[in-house]
């Protein structure tokens, strides 16, 4: 049965409205610490670095939108004003000093406007402030091991737990840090190259065997924050999440004392028990 143009138009309009309702009515905006269905923007910032990344992202979005609209306007003007019908006798002008200076100088100014905050952001990310806490994260196939060298010689493994939410992000043992403290994260790999990444903190750094890389974050909000290995490291690459629990100072001190006792055994036995629990 053939539909009229009016019916097709109404159905198309209905599909558009339904889609917009689904996006706006669902969780289109990102929640703190984890990805969200229909998410189209960055995760909510939970560190000074991520706040600067989000600001820089929004600045670039404005700049590229203005450039795109400007180029679109030029194309429309050229098509309308300078087609063969509207302008049968084209100009033979080959040079225009003012235009040549403008289209050379304006892009340079735009690049400078982008470069200055870009360099400031890179400096903020790479210049590690004095740390209140150091954590060593070791990437393994396919899980993470954490140690707290400033708080006792204990180490524990963190494996994905299939019975925990959010799916593919929940783990058996979270990395625990205090709120509003500078945390230095040292990363390395035990077998192949991994990458330690937590979007809400604005950090992503490679974990390379035989090399110690460093990054930092300062969590400004109490809660749970999730990330994943961001390097293709093997068949279970998608199943080695990162879970960071941010707590207040008192809870962190209490957790440290508990962790010293709980994880006093060798990491290998800890891994075996955690692997059995995850299955």
Question: How would you portray this structure in words?
Answer:
By secondary structure, the protein is an alpha+beta fold. It has a domain at 133-278: Sandwich (Immunoglobulin-like). Helix content is 40%, strand content 21%. It is built from five helices and ten strands. It has helices at 5-25, 48-81, 97-126, 249-262, 267-278; strands spanning 133-140, 143-147, 155-158, 175-178, 182-189, 194-198, 203-207, 213-218, 223-229, 241-247. The strands form two sheets. Strands 3-2-1-5-8 form a five-stranded mixed sheet. A hairpin with a 7-residue loop joins strand 2 and strand 3. Helix 2 (48-81) runs antiparallel to helix 3. It is elongated, with a radius of gyration of 26 Å. The chain starts with a helix and ends with a helix.
**Number of contiguous helices:** 5
Anisotropy-based shape: elongated
- Main β-sheet, spatial strand arrangement: 3-2-1-5-8
Content of β-strand: 15-25%
Distance between the termini: 54 Å
Q: Which residue ranges are poorly predicted, with pLDDT under 50 across at least 5 consecutive positions? A: 13-30, 266-279
Structural class: alpha+beta
Q: Please describe the biggest sheet, giving its number of strands, its sense, and whether it closes into a barrel.
A: 5 strands, mixed
Q: SSE order in H/E notation? A: HHHEEEEEEEEEEHH
Per CATH, the superfamily of the domain at 133-278 is Cupredoxins -  blue copper proteins
Assigned CATH architecture of the domain at 133-278:
Sandwich
Q: What is the rounded Rg?
A: 26 Å
Total number of strands: 10
């Amino acid at each position: 049965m053939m539909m009229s143009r009016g019916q097709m138009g109404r159905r198309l309009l209905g599909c558009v409205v339904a889609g917009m309702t689904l996006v706006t009515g669902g969780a289109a905006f990102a929640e703190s610490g984890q990805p969200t269905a229909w998410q189209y923007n960055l995760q909510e910032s939970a560190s000074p670095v991520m706040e600067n990344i989000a600001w820089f992202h929004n600045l670039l979005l404005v700049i590229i939108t203005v450039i795109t609209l400007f180029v679109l306007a030029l194309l429309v003007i050229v098509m309308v004003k300078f087609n063969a019908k509207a302008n049968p006798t084209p100009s033979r002008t080959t040079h225009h000093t003012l235009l040549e200076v403008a289209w050379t100088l304006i892009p340079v100014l735009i690049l400078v406007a982008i470069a200055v905050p870009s360099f400031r952001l890179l400096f903020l990310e790479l210049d590690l402030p004095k740390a209140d806490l150091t954590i060593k994260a070791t990437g393994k196939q396919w899980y993470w091991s954490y140690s707290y060298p400033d708080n006792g010689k204990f180490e524990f493994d963190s494996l994905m737990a299939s019975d925990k939410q959010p799916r593919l992000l929940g783990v058996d043992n979270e990395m625990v840090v205090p709120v509003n403290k500078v945390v230095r994260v040292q990363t390395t790999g035990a077998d192949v190259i991994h990458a330690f990444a937590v979007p809400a903190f604005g950090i992503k750094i490679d974990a390379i065997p035989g090399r110690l890389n460093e990054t930092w974050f300062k969590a400004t909000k109490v809660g749970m924050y999730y990330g994943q290995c961001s390097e293709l490291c093997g068949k279970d690459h998608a199943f080695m999440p990162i879970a960071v629990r941010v707590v207040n100072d008192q809870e962190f001190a209490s957790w440290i004392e508990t962790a010293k006792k709980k994880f006093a055994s060798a990491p290998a036995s800890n891994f075996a028990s955690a692997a059995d629990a995850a299955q």
